[in-house]
Every structure is written in C-alpha cells, then in structure tokens.
Design a protein that fits this description.
Helix content is 37%, strand content 20%. By secondary structure, the protein is α/β, with parallel strands linked by helices. The protein has a single domain, classed as 5'-nuclease (Rossmann fold, 3-Layer(aba) Sandwich), CATH 3.40.50. It has a 3-stranded parallel beta sheet with strand order 3-4-5. A two-stranded antiparallel ribbon has the order 1-2. Helix 2 runs parallel beside helix 3.
Length: 105
C-alpha cells in the first residue's frame, strides 16, 4: 500500500477492517462506500479509469453505470479468487502481481 500511495495521478481510497467475535476480520460498509465514490467521481468527471481491487460481483451495476459515463474500469484481481462476472464486465483485468508494472506504463 505504501507504494500505491506514492503513485502520481492515483488516488487511493481504503476501507476499514473490523474484528469479529470469532477473531476474524471483515470489511464493513466498504463496498457501498466504494461504489458511491466510483459513481460520484465519475459523474464529476474526476477520472478516466477506475482501478477496482475487488472480486465482488455486487460491483457490476456500479461498473456498468460508470462505463455509461465514458469511463473505464480495470479490475485488479487476485489469482486464487478471480470473479467471472467482474472479468466479463470490466474493460481490463490485471493480476495483482502485475500492478506495479502497469502503473509504471
């Protein structure tokens, strides 16, 4: 994450993890906040390409709306947990291990 926060022309939006009673951590409200930010920033023409680091197909409607505004959405995926629906709807899929090279382009 430290590297990403230093990349020029990249705004990094992070969620939060909460500890659950079973000692597992999970995100809380991050997907809704992220979808709202993607849509709001697209409506205000604040970006051309969104990099979505998620494997949650619940983002598909937000992605389609963002694309209808002429924006592109690239999915950053983790090799072990690819999401078919996101890969199908996103303009590009990038493996998390390839992000550094992609951002240098």
């Amino acid at each position: 994450m430290a590297y990403l926060s230093k990349v020029k022309r990249l705004d990094l939006y992070l969620g939060r993890l909460e500890k659950r009673p079973n000692n597992h951590k999970s995100e809380n409200g991050v997907d809704v906040k992220l979808a709202i930010d993607m849509l709001s920033l697209a409506y205000h023409n604040n970006y051309d390409v969104a990099l979505l680091i998620s494997n949650d197909s619940d983002f598909v409607p937000a992605i389609k709306e963002v694309q209808s505004l002429g924006k592109q959405v690239y999915n950053i995926s983790f090799p072990a947990t690819k999401c078919y629906h996101l890969n199908k709807v996103c303009d590009k899929t990038i493996k998390v291990n390839d992000v550094t090279n992609f951002l240098k382009e």
